[in-house]
């Protein structure tokens, strides 16, 4: 397997098990922020991924701990209560989606959501809209 397979497995898991539409998700760009109605998801390799040798010689077997950082983007509309409600719901949606398939469509031996975070003072403008980011980190392991 590879980190590309993990990327594709995350996409499959998000679209098959989560409440997001295909056009709301991207691992390659911020384009969904320009076309999504209420929410969007972006994700990329983030931080330090660890690679440990399990054997020596050639070919070498390795255990890989991939760290993928993502953001659930919540569009800020006129109703502040709706934004806050979508933040609460977003935490549940992210957790529930990744809990449905910890192999990420068979691309990983195991994966788990390592963290979800929200900074109440952080906003982002993109595509002519104001967005509230909810960041998450997923760890995916393969042998």
Helix and strand layout, with pairings?
Elements: H1 3-17, E1 25-26, H2 32-35, E2 39-45, E3 50-53, E4 62-75, H3 80-99, E5 110-118, E6 124-126, E7 129-142
Parallel strand pairs: 1-2
Antiparallel strand pairs: 2-4, 3-4, 4-7, 5-7, 6-7
What are its keywords?
Alpha-Beta Plaits; seven-stranded mixed sheet; 143 residues
Structural description of this entry:
This protein is an alpha+beta fold. It has a single domain (3-142), classed as Alpha-Beta Plaits (2-Layer Sandwich). It is built from 3 helices and 7 strands; from the N terminus they run αβαβββαβββ. It has helices at residues 3-17, 32-35, 80-99, and strands at 25-26, 39-45, 50-53, 62-75, 110-118, 124-126, 129-142. Strands 1, 2, 3, 4, 5, 6 and 7 form a 7-stranded mixed sheet that branches. The radius of gyration is 16 Å and the shape is elongated.
Estimate the global geometry from the Cα principal axes: elongated
**CATH homologous superfamily placement:** Phage minor tail protein U
CATH-derived architecture: 2-Layer Sandwich
- Radius of gyration, Cα only, in angstroms? 16 Å
> Which regions are unreliable across 5 or more consecutive residues at pLDDT < 50?
none
For the record, give the distance between the C-alpha atoms at the N and C termini, rounded to a whole number.
Answer: 8 Å
Q: Strand fraction band?
A: 35-45%
Question: Helix content range of the residues, please?
Answer: 25-40%
Instruction: Please state the oligomeric state of the protein chains shown.
Output: single chain
Helix-strand topology string:
HEHEEEHEEE
Chain-averaged pLDDT: 93
Biggest β-sheet strands, sense, barrel: 7 strands, mixed
CATH class: Alpha Beta
Predict the CATH topology.
Answer: Alpha-Beta Plaits
User: Helical stretch count?
Assistant: 3
Structural category is alpha+beta
Tell me the number of strands: 7
Q: What number of structural domains do the residues give?
A: 1
């Amino acid at each position: 397997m590879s980190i590309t397979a993990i990327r594709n497995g995350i996409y499959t898991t998000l679209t098959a098990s989560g409440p997001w539409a295909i056009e709301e998700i991207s691992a390659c760009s911020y384009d969904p922020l320009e076309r999504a109605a209420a929410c969007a998801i972006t994700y990329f390799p983030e931080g330090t991924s660890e690679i440990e040798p399990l054997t020596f010689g050639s070919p070498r077997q390795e255990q890989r701990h991939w760290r993928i950082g993502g953001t659930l983007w919540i569009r800020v509309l006129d109703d502040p209560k709706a934004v806050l409600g979508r933040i609460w719901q977003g935490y549940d949606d992210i957790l529930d989606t990744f809990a449905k398939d910890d192999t990420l469509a068979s691309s990983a031996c195991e994966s788990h959501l390592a963290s979800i975070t929200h900074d109440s003072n952080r906003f982002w403008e993109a595509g002519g809209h104001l967005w509230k980011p909810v960041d998450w980190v997923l760890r995916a392991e393969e042998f």
